[in-house]
Amino acid sequence: MIDIIPSGASLGAQVRGLDLGKPLDAAMRDTLLTAWHRHQVLVFRDQDLDDDALIAFTGAIGEVQMAPDSDVTAGFGGFADVSPAITTISNIVKDGRKIGALGHAEADWHTDMSYLDTPPSASILYAIQVPASGGNTAFCDMYAAYKALDDDMKARITGRRAIHDFTYTSAGVLRVGHKEITDVRDTPGARHPLVRTHPDTGRKCLYLGRRINGYILDLPVAESEALLDLLWAAATRPEFVWEHTWQRGDVVMWDNRCVMHHRDAFDPAETRLMHRTQIRGDGHS
Ligand code: SIN
């Protein structure tokens, strides 16, 4: 028996009574998927997992997607001594090299790997070391954001696509081999619809991905900028946001199709080490 305790906010729930290190049976998998589709973000506290167990849990939920190649261009990939399925998120520097992504700085609101044509449907983040304070991760509900738009705005964005920038990481690091974008119409990265229908729930949501260098195709640049600013402000309204304060041993699984996330900065003198897995997306638009 497990308990599912909603956060009380627009999204997020804690699942109690489950050891993710043990095999999931089909009934429990269904229960978790139902809860995940309903709450968009699930938190499991007090887990004790090695990488194999984290990957096994991920594979029990869906198809494991390897860590992004783009890590290399952000200057941290291929250094950490971990499985290629694991994305290391950390500010730790070992032998003069960063072992993971994002450092200690704030990470802007984003959807993981939305610069790909088929971004992962889920990210599963496991906390191995956490700072005493800071480094919280906030999530926003993109179903609620879409629903709250007025009919005029819904009509303006329906059928439109936007570019999801590849040149910068969400921590504002320019990827190796890329240069500043001077015209957002030339931004490299995937083109995704602004409004998506979630393949499992059938619900519509806003899909924004990342703000920097974003561009709504076929609009004058100034109009695209103004519209993106409105949409981003609408998506990250406080009533659509819920924030997770990490403890060591937490696992948080979020749905990249209908959620964006943002990571607070923390004291660089402290260390934060997280291992993330990804579930392959469906390319659904
Ligand atoms: C991520 O953006 O996938 C990591 C978020 C975090 O470090 O909390």
Describe the structure.
The protein is built from six helices and 20 strands. Helix content is 20%, strand content 27%. Strands 1, 2, 3, 4, 5, 8, 10, 18 and 20 form a nine-stranded mixed beta sheet that branches. Strands 9-19-11-17 form a four-stranded antiparallel beta sheet. The longest helix has 15 residues, at 221-235. It has one domain (3-279): Double-stranded beta-helix, CATH 3.60.130.10. β14 and β15 form a beta hairpin. It is globular, with a radius of gyration of 18 Å. The chain has helices at 26-39, 51-61, 70-73, 142-148, 151-157, 221-235, and strands at 3-6, 13-16, 41-44, 64-65, 87-90, 93-94, 97-98, 101-102, 107-110, 122-129, 137-141, 161-163, 191-193, 195-197, 204-206, 215-216, 241-244, 251-255, 259-263, 273-279. It is an alpha+beta fold. The site of succinic acid (SIN) has 12 residues, from β10, β19 and β20.
